[in-house]
Amino acid sequence: MEIKEFKIVICGGGSTYTAGIVKNLLDEKRLGMKELWLYDIDEERQNKVAYLVREVVKENRPEVTVKTTTDPKEAFTDADFIMAQMRVGGLPMRVQDEQISLKHGVIGQETCGAGGMAYGMRTIYPMVQLIDYCEEYAKPTYWIVNYSNPAAIVAKATQKMRPNARIINICDMPVEIEARMAEILGCQMSDLEVDYFGLNHYGWFTKIRQNGIDVTEKLKEHVRKYGYISEASMNDVFLKDSDWVHTFKVSAKIANYFPDYLPNTYYQYYLLGDDMYKYMDINHTRGMQVINGREVRVFAAADKLAKGEAVDMNQFYVGVHGVFIVNVVTSLAYDLRSRQLVMVPNNGCVENLPDDAMVEVPTYITSHGPEPIRVGAIPRFYKGLIEQQDACEGLLVEAAMEHSYVKALEAYTMNRTIPSANVAKEILDDMIEANKGYWPELK
Ligand code: G6P
Ligand code: MN
Question: Cβ(149) to ligand 1 under 6 A?
């Protein structure tokens, strides 16, 4: 295979995940990287993270040059692949989303419910702007591989507002679950092939095959007892984090209630909101944990590197998450048609869902984009759930596009995690206040 040279840009270079993802990029020699570009609007933050990125490059492929910029023209000119991982408002606003929601008695979560919708309203226009930059400056064959959250809302918005953009919206949660499945089954992830349908953070595994053999029932039995946790996976980095252990365990309850399929872990917020509300602590939210954990570790390492001290870079490698993103990029680059779960416009893929739903399903990633594998019709319970969530997300996007307060209220009311229009209105009004300068103005 002839190795091509690509200009790869990470948009949101200042993320705590950047160094880890760069490791995965460097490991994939087929991406023929000479220069790696980091782009962020927060120069100071990106400069810190750049210390780690340079260290990873030095340790792995010192011939690669790292460039940082805050200038979109410089970043995106002639870019081939843009990996988008922006967090509009940063982690402090993640905490704010969580706390405002919890204050009103509903779950406060990064991408789900009231918090996720607030984050969506902040992210829609910056993502559209990113597309416009790429249309203007990047190569005509550019691809944006977006995993900026809330990916479901971003996918819906970008599809509606820039339908011809070369963007693929992806999320690592299904592959993270597949990694847990492989551990439970005692096999490699590459031995597994799954069937799946849903929206992002809102989907179901319908079949799991291990080297072609159907192991769905065997897995269900395990998940109903223990959730997505195996003895071995207790040693996994991702799982050292107690919230994630909890999350993977909670799936057991859902798998018992609804035995047809295996859930995406994010259903804990939509189907077990009461349990999760009790579990959540307004003074110790997930966003706060990330600020005091991963972010502190990244900044401390940057300080050390700046002083010329040694740092163990292994702690920043992100594993499955990064491998998945790089697999998608490589498949786009070389038309590999690898099978990946990504978000696509439904257009009949799930027969009885609206054509304009952005469904997360298995696809083959070709150089001209994902080719979805047809799912067929889904049972009424799942159809109903998904239609409601799709309506909620669609209304939110329309609220942003039309600057409509009423549509935003409809979206908040439509969300499963919010019990009444009264609560929806109270939260919405607080969110509008707290997101001044970030949200489109609503009339
Ligand atoms: C998973 C999800 C992402 C989400 C992340 C949050 O990877 O797929 O969408 O952003 O978890 O993890 P954190 O450790 O920041 O709570
Ligand atoms: Mn995700």
Answer: yes
Both tokens of 200, joined, read 């992002």
Residue 325 Cβ contacting ligand 1 at under 6 Å: no
Closest ligand to residue 170's CA: 2
Write the secondary structure of 128-178 as one string of H (helix), E (strand) and C (coil). Answer: HHHHHHHHHHCCCCCEEEECCCCHHHHHHHHHHHCCCCCEEECCCHHHHHH
**Token output for 270:** 């939509």
User: Which bound ligand lies closest to the C-alpha atom of 175?
Assistant: 1
**Cβ of 264 below 6 Å from ligand 1:** no
pTM score of the predicted model: 0.97
Torsion of Cα atoms, 167 then 133 then 147 then 412, to 10°: -90
CB atoms within 10 A of CB 433: 10
Ligand 1 pocket test, pick from 18, 86, 88, 111 with the greatest ligand atom count within 8 Å of Cβ, gives 111
- Which residues of the chain fall short of a pLDDT of 50? none
The count of other CB atoms within 10 Å of the CB of residue 211 is 11
CA–CA dist 56, 46 (Å, integer): 15
Q: Quick one: pLDDT at residue 231?
A: 72
Dig out the tokens for 266 from the structure. Answer: 């994010």
**Residues 53, 22: contact at Cβ < 8 Å?**
yes
Q: How far apart are CA 9 and CA 171, in angstroms?
A: 18
Distance CA 50, CA 14 (A): 8
What is the maximum alpha-carbon separation in the chain? 60
Closest ligand 1 atom, residue 290 Cα: 15
Q: Residue 239: what pLDDT?
A: 60
> Is the C-beta atom of 172 inside 6 A of ligand 1?
yes
CA distances to 110, 223, 270, 405, 412 from 420, in Å? 21, 33, 15, 17, 9
- Strand residue runs (E) in 287-426: 338-345, 358-366, 369-372
